Amino acid sequence: MRTLIATAFISLDGVMEAPGGEPDYRNSGWTMTSVDFDPAAYEMKGTEQGEATALLLGRRSYQAFSPVWPAMTEEFPGYNAMPKYVVSTTLKDKDLVDNWGETTILRSAADVARLRASDGGPISIHGSATLVHSLQEHHLIDRYHLLVFPVLLGAGKRLFSGAELGAQKLKLVDSAVYSNGIQKNVFDVLR
Fold first, then answer.
1. Can you tell me whether residue 2 is helix, strand or coil?
2. Are the C-beta atoms of 148 and 83 separated by less than 8 Å?
3. Dihedral (C-alpha) 97, 51, 2, 186: value to the nearest 10 degrees?
4. What SS3 state is found at 168?
5. How many Å apart are CA 172 and CA 4, to the nearest integer?
6. Alpha carbons 146 and 169: distance in angstroms, whole number
7. What share of the chain is helix, strand, coil (3-state, %, to 5)?
8. Tag placement on the chain: N or C end, fewer CB within 10 Å?
9. How many angstroms separate the CA atoms of 50 and 126, rounded?
10. d(Cα 103, Cα 128) in Å, to the nearest integer?
11. How high is the pLDDT of residue 166?
12. What is the mean pLDDT, run by run of 10 residues, along the chain of 191 residues?
């Protein structure tokens, strides 16, 4: 069985929307403006890229990343080379970019469950708030890699589903605090 890892930059109040400057959000780019840069705080991103064997995205995140990430050969060589899976009920094969490697469209949480049950290594989920919420509600996420920024953003897409779920216990397996106040928290979901 593969490990599904939701990885995110989040504010202290759980907002994950537009951390890198995506348009149409009032606090767009908040990861770059809310704290001083400390390269140590981002080392987890390189580790994730080295450990992941596939990338799982929702449709909106795929459409945001696919025009940009293939050209970012220094920042994302591992992600660019690995297989990608996009969960969407509307995306068609003709909508996929042709310069970002093997990409498979999945149609449901059941398809993700089958992928998770297959042989292989960890699958990294970036962005994709709607997808993450669905996977939380179906108890499919195995681990969270969180960089928590010391900022309150108020409104915005949140990492955690607002659905009425039963309690999910987590185990903190790694943590650190950096000079700029960012906290790294890695949690395994206990089943």
1. coil
2. no
3. -110
4. coil
5. 16
6. 16
7. 30, 25, 45
8. C
9. 15
10. 16
11. 86
12. 97 94 88 94 93 96 92 87 96 95 97 98 96 96 98 95 90 98 98 93
Distance CA 141, CA 121 (A): 14
* Residues contacting residue 115 through CB under 8 Å, at least 6 positions apart: 2, 56, 85, 106, 123
Sequence-distant (6+) residues with CB within 8 A of 156 are: 11, 15, 16, 17, 18, 25, 27
Q: Is 96 helix (H, G, I), strand (E, B) or coil?
A: coil
Element spanning 64, H or E:
helix 59-65
User: How much is the pLDDT for 24?
Assistant: 84
Q: Which two tokens stand for residue 154?
A: 């108020």
Confidence at residue 74, expressed as pLDDT on a 0 to 100 scale? 86
CA distance 183 to 135: 24
Q: What is the pLDDT of residue 14?
A: 96
In the DSSP assignment, the letter for residue 118 is: S
Specify burial of residue 118 (Cβ count, 10 A radius: 0-12, 13-18, 19+): exposed
Per the listing, tokens 């929702």 go with 58
Length of the chain: 191
Model confidence, pTM: 0.95
Per DSSP, the three-state class of 65 is: helix
